[in-house]
Design goal:
25% of the residues lie in helices and 13% in strands. It contains 13 helices and 12 strands. It is globular. By secondary structure, the protein is an alpha/beta fold.
């Protein structure tokens, strides 16, 4: 018996139809596919040696492959909220931090689409972690939930949610010829991974592509290959859904957008405003409306997704949107795409410091340079080194740095931190940082050599500081306003709570 889901949406003002839509006889469908914790360039079409992604590669070959796509935050909740609202994380209060709430006054594009007649829904992970209901929302910001179908996963780290079956159920419930917008959010490749799953797949350690911010040990290589196994599971469901669209005759009328919410769950990546935390895969195809085999080298921000999706649907951007549509880059519709910089930031990630303090960062990428502003350089960027035990005694150092997810790679860095060949990687991940960091990504994509104090780059850093300051002022970032510490007052509604020694 088919499970019916009652669709409820926020009451929104009527939205204007753009001139772009008037050219279309039939409104297009939108399939948005988002991985959980996947960095650029971890897809086979980018040249990765450790992962096979025929689904992602197909989307890219049938449309556009983006080489410089950036999220607005290196953590799930704020990054996803930014995609949904078309606003920067620092503009959306609690939704701009991790595992808090999502104020209902910030309108999400699925609700705008539903109001205009679209069938909406999501499977897997929508917006989260956090509590959307406490804000009075009627469903997850990504749409009504379709998670009833389950499967037996091949490995313990993989979710039991059958994304493909749930997508098919979603499609079966729409009215005849009704356009749809579906958010397919896998839980992969989020940790935990099943250790040594790569070996069961018949892979070998020589396949691992070790980034420059990690030591090339066997522990790290195996951890990377376990991560790759989960990317391939994500990609399998992407391909399944493409095949289903083809089967029902909707593929050519569906724009498919494939990306990730933030970077890989490894030290120096996720939860950091370095390249590996913000730089994500992105591919978009749309029948014959997007020329195949395009390669887009422009800097693009995923704050642009909401206005892009609304333009696809023939609707004007919401008045709150700060992004701009990506369509001019890939459709040649006569409009222009003006972005030359991408901005990002983070506040609290996990409960990893005394009194639940966060680690506020903002960043700007311009040309080949990345500038990072650490607002509280006196704090530990990956979290305090030790939490308190039952008798308020500090636990061993392994029980700290909680802004880095538990992982063999993290364990290796901590346990080998005094090894001269490992110490630089350990320090890059957990040591305290200066207020400003500047990296030349052309020469140092791993962000291991801070050149902010090099006088040769005085003009670059001065110009980029001004770019960042101007953007934060334009977008009313409270971190540079009259109440910068309001972020510390937002409640943590999900996740483990810990105790740490008072650092004052």
């Amino acid at each position: 018996m088919k499970t019916m889901i009652k669709h409820t949406v926020l009451l929104l003002p009527l939205v204007a139809v753009s001139s772009f839509a008037k050219q279309e006889q039939r409104r297009p469908n939108i399939l948005f596919v988002i991985a959980d914790d996947q960095s650029y360039p971890d897809a086979s079409i980018y040249g990765s040696s450790m992962v096979r992604t025929p689904g992602f590669d197909l989307v890219a070959s049938q449309g556009a492959l983006f080489n410089n796509a950036y999220v607005t935050s290196p953590g799930s909740s704020p990054s996803r909220a930014s995609m949904l609202t078309g606003m920067y994380p620092w503009q959306i209060e609690e939704a701009g931090t991790h595992a808090s709430s999502f104020p209902a006054k910030y309108i999400c594009y699925p609700d705008i689409l539903a109001k205009s007649g679209y069938h909406i829904g999501f499977t897997g992970k929508g917006w989260g972690p956090g509590d959307w209901a406490v804000s009075g929302r009627l469903h997850n910001p990504a749409g009504p939930e379709y998670n009833t179908h389950k499967l037996d996963p091949p490995y313990s780290g993989i979710s039991k949610v059958d994304y493909t079956a749930n997508f098919k159920q979603f499609l079966s419930e729409r009215d005849k010829d009704q356009p749809f917008c579906f958010w397919l959010g896998t839980h992969e490749p989020h940790r935990p991974y099943e250790n040594m799953s790569w070996l069961k797949e018949g892979n070998n350690l020589s396949m691992a592509a070790v980034p420059g911010f990690l030591p090339p040990s066997d522990d790290v290589k195996g951890d990377l290959l376990d991560y790759a196994v989960e990317i391939e599971w994500f990609d399998k469901h992407l391909m399944n859904c493409i095949e289903e669209l083809k089967r029902i005759g909707e593929l050519d009328n569906t724009i498919i957008i494939v990306t990730a919410d933030n970077g890989m769950s490894f030290p120096h990546a996720k939860a950091n405003c370095y390249d590996a935390g913000l730089h994500v895969p992105l591919a978009i195809c749309w029948g014959d409306k997007v020329k195949p085999s395009q390669v887009v080298n422009n800097l693009v921000s995923l704050v642009d997704l909401a206005p892009t999706i609304l333009q696809i649907a023939g609707l004007e951007p919401h008045t709150m949107h700060v992004g701009e549509s990506l369509l001019p880059l890939i459709t040649g519709n006569g409009q222009t795409y003006s972005r030359k910089t991408v901005f990002a930031g983070r506040e609290r990630h996990s409960y990893s410091r005394f009194d639940n303090w966060g680690y506020p960062m903002r960043s700007v990428r311009w040309k080949n340079y990345l500038l990072v502003h650490n607002f509280h350089p006196e704090r530990w960027p990956a979290g305090d080194p030790q939490e308190l035990g039952k008798n308020d005694e500090p636990k061993e150092i392994h029980k700290g740095y909680f802004d880095i997810d538990a992982a063999p790679s993290k364990d290796y860095l901590v346990s080998h931190r005094n090894d001269p060949s490992v110490t630089p990687f350990f320090n890059a991940s957990v040591a305290k940082r200066p207020e400003y960091e500047l990296y030349n990504l052309k020469n140092d994509p791993a962000c291991m050599k801070n050149i902010a104090s090099d006088t040769k780059f005085n003009n670059i850093i001065s110009e980029m500081k001004q770019m960042l300051q101007t953007k934060l002022e334009e977008t009313n970032d409270s971190r540079i306003g009259s109440n910068p510490e309001i972020w510390e007052s937002y409640p943590r509604t999900e996740g483990k709570m810990r105790k740490f020694p008072d650092k004052n």
